[in-house]
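Service request form, structural biology core

Requester: graduate student, group of Dr. S.
Request type: structure prediction, single chain
Budget code: on file
Notes: please return the result as C-alpha cells.

Sequence provided:
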Amino acid sequence: MIRNIAQYMHVRKKYNAGIIDESEAMRSISVEISDSINSCRRSSSLIADSLEALSTVGQDNSSASEELAASAEEIAGIADSMKKLTENF
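Core staff response, request fulfilled:
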C-alpha cells in the first residue's frame, strides 16, 4: 500500500510540475498581451494627437484660404478701378 501511495505521489508530482510549467507559460503570455495592449494604447494616443494636429492645420488652411479669397477680391476690385482710370487717358 505504501508503494501505491508513493507511486501516486510521484505521478501527482509530475502532474503538478506540468501545471506549474503551464502556469508560468500563461503568465509569460499574459505579460506579452499586457505589453501589446499598452503599446496599442500609446499608438492610439499618438494617432489621436496626429489627427488633432491635422485638424488644426486644416482649420488654419481654411482660414488662410478665406483670407486669400478676400484679398483676391480686393485686388480684383483695385485692378478694375485702375483699368477704368487708365481707360480715361
